[in-house]
Amino acid sequence: MTKHLTVVDHPLIQHKLTIMRDKTTPSNQFRQLLREISHLLAYEVTRDLPLTTKSIDTPMLTIDAPTVEGKKLALVSILRAGNGLLDGMLDLIPSARVGFVGLYRDEETLKPVKYYFKVPSEIDKRLVIAVDPMLATGNSSAAAIDMLKEAGAKNIVFLCLLAAPEGVARMKAAHPDVPIVTASLDDCLNENGYIMPGLGDAGDRIFGTQ
Ligand code: URA
Q: Where would a tag sit more exposed on the chain, N or C end, judged by fewer CB atoms within 10 A?
């Protein structure tokens, strides 16, 4: 993947995203739509996945047929909203290994602090797809990528549902080697760091907390 930012503006994604943005859409439907969109985003983000072959017997003959090296992949969910994208990704790539990064923002320093970090072994040999629905200021996303690199990850893609230009710029400055795939590049952030027009707090909308 060579482009730094890819916006996957497929009509089905845009249609489903519109329903997700609508504030009257309830959590169960929101979760289902996020799952469906993650299937479509997974298609794009795995476009360059390496293939290997395995020998199979069709009813007609034996062939070496292409197969994805699923064990060479790690999906890393940035908690907690990342889990909403993770479920759909796992539907399509069930053999992928899974990791988690948990961060909170220190109220005094305003810096992201790690409270949980667990990634699959041999992370340096895997394509790591880090998932978080909202790329807003980019502070926590950039910090999560820092941690993945410290753990040895070398080949990372960041997958989100919505991105703000501010977050894209922050990620490009901190991690120009990490391509971003998103369903929409929204307009801007508001004074509270929310994406505009956005969809509100993704975690609250996925899990029905508020
Ligand atoms: N996180 C969210 O959940 N929503 C935003 O708009 C920004 C960050």
A: C
